[in-house]
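thread: overnight batch results

M.L. [08:02]
morning all. the overnight job finished for the chain we discussed friday. pasting input first so we're all looking at the same thing
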Amino acid sequence: MVSKAEQMEEEILGIDSARKYAEGHKKYAKLMFRGVLNDIKANNISGSCLEAGAGPGLLAIMITQQNPEINITAIDISPDMATIASEYISQNKLENRIRYLVGDVGDEGMLQELGKFNFVYSTYSLHHWETPENSIRNLWNAVEDNGVLYIYDFKRIGWLCSLPLKGGEIDSMRAAYTPAEIKDIFHRIGITNYRIKTPFPFLFQSIIAWKKLV
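M.L. [08:03]
and the structure it wrote out:
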């Protein structure tokens, strides 16, 4: 198995770069988030939600448009992304259902101040987190009783990562985690009721954890 690369620091410098990033991802948003949206439907998610690493807000907008019973608090570490996301949210007239804040998933104090949520989720962000165990613990603590934690990200595939390829996606995969590594992190945190799926074409994984009362 190819060793994990260092976590990726996604450098988006300035409002123009953030806007270019957002416009580029809008073209592929339906494809990128299709599996996530299907999982939300399958788990009958409703109520208050928290999105960590929300980027330009594309997924939050899609979720609220498709699920009128959901309200979202979204956070991202980039103030420029927050600016772009606020523009998109306003354009879609969703200001009363999506609250967007600048925040770091590793900031335990901020997550505590936000309160508890029925559904806490993050997509394509785990491989960027400097302290993944602490960040996942923070998100888990933000899940209310009987709520759900959902993480969707690349999966590190040994043979593919060993190829002499360069680029955003392959670099993201090299910095991603294997299911076994995810299990180890969850074990250390004390999360026991979860499932890891690797849907076709097996380049990604979805991790769903349920905080059920005993």
